[in-house]
């Protein structure tokens, strides 16, 4: 491959996404919404997808519109490979190209003891978080030109074991491994593949998961801020790292999964 020299490009140009078409799955709220907003702010035209079609439409209509940028929304269930292909095709039709695909959609309920986990629960977790992410990357890569970037949202639990979330942790270990394998296979196509692995982030979904623990007496605010930086992570903390990953600032990165963890993995 030819050497790509970015030395003479201005910093503002390296992070700019002007003229690029992007898809964000699970974009109706939380991290996905924050990612869509940052990509749009950087100049990308964004297709916001979510199983909550109304929520996706709300986010798309609120995104900043810059020079040559426009935005769309679509209801997409990431377990439906046909719908993923339609989303990819629609991006090319609407924006002229597909440059960025961010697979953020996923589920993360706790399971309790692994010995009590039901088969249908395990199947659902792996279908959404692993097969959905795999199929999304496949459909995106089929339509991307050289220079495209795929980002998979993993988790810090994809790097270590945790009690009570065995199915979820297993799915995120799989996403970390999948990211490595896809990077290997897609590199000859000129497509980079990266993972981003947040720790606990203050999102509506996380709040819902923590409600029973809060009702049982857990200090949720303290738990979410229990990291080396001593503060709770917010969706934009993750979105800024995704923006870096898809931009030309990260042009020499592929196959890696970047922790966004306030040092949570440092002591493991």
Structural features, described:
The protein has a single domain, classed as Rossmann fold (3-Layer(aba) Sandwich), CATH 3.40.50.720. Helix content is 44%, strand content 13%. The model has no long low-confidence stretch (mean pLDDT 93). Strands 3-2-1-4-5-6-7 form a seven-stranded parallel β-sheet, sandwiched between helices. It contains nine helices and seven strands, in the order αβαβαβαβαβαβαααβ. It is an alpha/beta fold.
> How confident is the prediction overall: mean pLDDT?
93
Query: What is the radius of gyration?
Result: 18 Å
What CATH architecture label applies? Answer: 3-Layer(aba) Sandwich
CATH class: Alpha Beta
Instruction: Estimate percent helicity.
Output: 40-55%
- In CATH, the homologous superfamily goes by the name NAD(P)-binding Rossmann-like Domain
Strand order of the largest sheet: 3-2-1-4-5-6-7
H/E series, N to C? HEHEHEHEHEHEHHHE
**Total domain units:** 1
Task: Tell me the distance between the termini.
Answer: 37 Å
Largest sheet: 7 strands, parallel
Number of strands: 7
Count of helix runs:
9
**Share of β-strand residues:** 5-15%
CATH topology: Rossmann fold
Unreliable spans: none
Morphology: globular
| Helix/strand structural class | alpha/beta
């Amino acid at each position: 491959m030819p050497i790509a020299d970015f030395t003479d490009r201005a910093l503002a140009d390296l992070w700019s996404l002007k003229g690029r078409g992007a898809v964000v799955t699970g974009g109706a709220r939380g991290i996905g919404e924050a990612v869509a907003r940052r990509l749009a702010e950087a100049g990308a035209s964004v297709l916001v997808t979510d199983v909550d079609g109304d929520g996706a439409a709300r986010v798309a209509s609120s995104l900043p519109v810059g020079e040559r940028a426009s935005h769309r929304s679509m209801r997409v269930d990431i377990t439906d490979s046909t719908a993923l292909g339609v989303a990819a095709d629609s991006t090319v039709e609407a924006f002229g190209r597909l440059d960025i695909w961010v697979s953020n959609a996923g589920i993360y309920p706790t399971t309790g003891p692994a010995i009590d986990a039901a088969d249908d629960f395990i199947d659902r977790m792996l279908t959404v978080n692993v097969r959905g992410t795999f199929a999304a990357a496949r459909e995106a890569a089929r339509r991307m030109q050289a220079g495209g970037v795929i980002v998979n949202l993993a988790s810090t639990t994809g790097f270590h074991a945790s009690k009570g979330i065995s199915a979820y942790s297993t799915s995120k270990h799989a996403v970390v491994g999948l990211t490595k394998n896809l990077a290997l296979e897609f590199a000859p196509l000129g497509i980079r593949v990266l993972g981003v692995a947040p720790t606990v982030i203050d999102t509506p979904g996380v709040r819902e998961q923590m409600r029973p623990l809060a009702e049982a007496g857990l200090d949720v605010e303290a738990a979410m801020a229990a990291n080396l930086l001593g503060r709770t992570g917010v969706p934009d903390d993750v979105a800024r790292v995704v923006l870096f990953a898809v931009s030309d600032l990260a042009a020499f990165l592929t196959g890696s999964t970047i922790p966004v963890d306030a040092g949570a993995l440092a002591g493991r």
